[in-house]
Amino acid sequence: MRTQDTHPTRTAWLVVAGLLAFMLLLAGCGGSSDNNENGEELTKVDKGEGQVDLISWAGYVEPEWSKPFEEKTGCKVNNKVAGTSDEMVSLMRTGQYDGVSASGNATARLVEGGDVAPVNVSLVPNYKTIFSDLKNQPYNTFEGVHYGIPHGRGANLLMWNTNDVKPAPKSWGVILNPKEAAKYKGKISAYDDPIYIADAAVYLKMHEPKLGIENPYELNEEQFEAAVNLLKEQRPFVGEYWSEAAKQISAFAGGDNAVGTTWQYQYFELKGAGKPVAASPASQGFLPEEGATGWSDTWMISSSAKHPNCMYMWMNWVVSPKVNAEIAEFFGEAPAQTLACEHTANPNFCKEYHAEEPAFWKRVYYWQTPLADCDNGSSDCKDYNDWVQAWTSIKG
Amino acid sequence: MSRRLANLFHGRPHLQVGALLAGPIGWLVIGYLGSLLVLLIAAFWTVDPLSGEVIRGLSFENIETLVNEPVYRTIIGRTVLIAALVTVTDAVLAFPIAFYMAKVASRRGKAVLVVAVLLPLWSSYLVKVYSWRTMLGAGGVINWALAPLGLHGPGFGNTAVWLVMSYLWLPYMILPIYAGLERIPGSLISASEDLGASPFTTFRRVILPLAFPAVVAGSIFTFALTLGDYITPRLVSNNQFIGNVIFNNISNNLPFASALALVPIVVMVAYLLVARRLGAFEHI
């Protein structure tokens, strides 16, 4: 009996050992082959491949404009909505998608990682009429090579409950200056992401000129330290850090939070539900005095795109005047396409969103990936890893 | 074909067992242990600060950061402490319920209670956490109920995390204890009474020692589930758990996220070793 019992055990061990060896072999092979270079630019857009797989922000790919695209090109649109830039980067790294609507705090990471390919803008006819201050920006053009098609832009908002916060704040100081923020202890809402450190840098750029902050995403040791310390001082007054829009909406609707940084999506939702909220600058026509962080999103094509022709057609479609106007109005952002302003349902839309005023956008600091390489040539800036670590220590 | 296959296996017990086990063991080794192994190895890699690419080489940088930065010690301490509190709370709440289910309730009452315990597991985790969020909020039902007494609810914070987690994982504690108590023969309790033991003594000297391994088994669930959760802390507090920091690092610094993921593994292995000494696995 006993000898028979030990044999299956030995067999099992043999199976385990064999499988382990097999796995290590697989791991060894995998390691050498995933070093792909950035894909080649397309030279000509051919017939579509029948489908296109996208990653996008909520509200960027809606049936109102994706259905007509499918009918026109025969490319079926499969969309995956991502909640954060980090999520977009990890999804793109799977190589299973053709393109992504990346914000500036994801683009550099995608380019550095070889996850996206250069875009041949001559194959995107609508690119010509895109606002020129959106072209050749550090978050969509790298070493003179275009990596995407600008889609739309906006500024992050300061939102407040009009019953609790009087008079209407004109500066981020209401949540970032410790003296003023103390008044709203436990009622402040802050964005739960390392990129929020840039909001503190924007505030310091104006109020602590000695620090010499130029770009809030390129901070040296001293500037970074100051921004992080400001947020550490803010920490005890923060009622809630939000990362999901739904969480912030419920906090404002239930009266837990009274003032904080937000996106127009939450503002529109709360406004639509009849809550007493006001915000800058969505359609109100002003920015807080310091300016604001914001976003300028770019459609990028994957370096391992399986449907590049459909992707090129999609990139051209989203910046075509009518569609770009539709998206901008649906989402609540300024369109990237100059000709879109003639097609908006609200004739004043472009005016309200300052789409055609470059001076307004000079004070909006679009999200950008913090890199060690600063623009001024030195490499003593804090990189995104440092930002993530600092964010952990701010929240504690 | 099938005949040749049958002939091949005939009289070869090793081959039979091997073919039978290859699938499940393959899953266990490659899919489960394999990914753990990769995680373990990745913890010793680093990320190149300029390109963001993973450098595959042995380095203790991540472990050093974990040990030297006080913020990580705070976060690990907080996570383990709340996991322990949730476990104790659930054990205290679950025991009487499980005891009533196993030894007192009628057959019908038992069925009703089992369904009542299982029912919360049928609804989505997020729905439950968001409901708690609404209840704990400034204008929520808890503050409303406490207002006439001149009291305030706990609001959002560690207390809220403790409350919500205790609620979420309670069924995972009740069910093992119920199963453990079911197995204790009624005759043992009668015998104890016949020998003159008071109900309390019977509980302390007969029921508790026999049911204790079941409590430990349940505590493995509640402890591990709390240790790994990151959504509840995000929704009802501003405080970070180990899982939140892993989540924040996963896309830009996978090696550091892996290093952090080792912490719950080490804690759980220690916990399981203690649990084994306490006899939690004797009846498996």
CA(first)-CA(last) distance of chain B: 40 Å
- Runs of chain A in which pLDDT lies below 50 for 5 or more consecutive residues are 1-5, 29-38
CATH-derived topology of the largest domain in chain B:
MetI-like fold
Q: Report the strand count of chain B.
A: 2
Given the structure, what is the number of helices of chain B?
13
Order of helices and strands of chain A: HEHEHEHEEEEEHHEHHEHEHEEHHEHHEH
Q: Report strand % of chain B.
A: under 5%
- The 3D shape of chain B can be described as globular
N-end to C-end Cα span of chain A:
60 Å
Radius of gyration of chain B: 24 Å
CATH architectural grouping of the largest domain in chain B: Orthogonal Bundle
Written as H for each helix and E for each strand, in order along the chain, the element string of chain B is HHEEHHHHHHHHHHH
Count of the separate structural domains of chain B: 2
Question: In total, how many beta strands of chain A?
Answer: 15
Uncertain segments of chain B are none
Strand content of chain A: 15-25%
The residue fraction in helices of chain A comes out at 25-40%
Quaternary structure classification:
heterodimer
Helical segment count of chain A: 15
Mean pLDDT figure of chain B: 89
In short:
Chain A has 15 helices and 15 strands.
Please outline the helices and strands.
The complex is a heterodimer of chains A (396) and B (284).
Chain A: H1 2-33, E1 51-56, H2 63-73, E2 76-81, H3 85-93, E3 99-102, H4 104-112, E4 116-117, E5 141-142, E6 145-146, E7 149-155, E8 157-161, H5 173-176, H6 178-181, E9 188-191, H7 197-207, H8 221-234, E10 238-242, H9 245-253, E11 259-262, H10 264-272, E12 277-280, E13 292-302, H11 308-318, H12 321-331, E14 334-335, H13 349-352, H14 358-362, E15 364-366, H15 384-395
Parallel strand pairs in A: 1-2, 1-3, 9-10, 9-11, 13-15
Antiparallel strand pairs in A: 3-13, 4-13, 5-6, 7-13, 7-14, 8-11, 8-12
Helix pairs in contact in A: 3-4, 7-8, 8-15, 9-10
Chain B: H1 2-9, H2 13-42, E1 46-47, E2 54-55, H3 61-68, H4 70-104, H5 107-118, H6 125-136, H7 141-146, H8 158-182, H9 186-194, H10 199-228, H11 231-236, H12 242-249, H13 254-277
Antiparallel strand pairs in B: 1-2
Helix pairs in contact in B: 2-13, 4-8, 4-10, 8-10, 9-10, 10-13, 12-13
